[in-house]
Amino acid sequence: MRVPASFLYLTVSAYGIYWAHHMITRRHTTSTVAYWYWDLLLGAITLGIGAILRWTPWRARTSWLPVVGSAMVAGYYLGATVVTLHRHSVGGIKATIPQLGFALIPVLLVVLLLLLALFEKFRPELLEPPAHSFDQA
Which one of 22, 50, 53, 92 is at 20 to 30 Å from 43 when CA atoms are compared? Predict the structure, then answer.
């Protein structure tokens, strides 16, 4: 489970870095939620570093990095979800329910990523199969 999770962490990290860079450099930093983009950027960088360090001997000492990084990324996405749903409810966003549902799929994926990171940190025995073999008598 370690290798697929690492690639998932790296993918979310790369997209988070791209999106934060896009929003910061496109002058979206004048809004009242501009600090969210810095949170996303720092969380994505932390998540990426944690994903890379999973393949090193420092894995045990740095296993908290994916938890912190995915929590910061999830914080951005959950905050953006609340703002989006509020704007939709007051008529500021013209979208159908299926369009909103499709747009909120990344939020679900990021929340699942946070849950995966939490399970890997605090309950790894639930994700990793036992080391023994059933073929031995």
Answer: 92
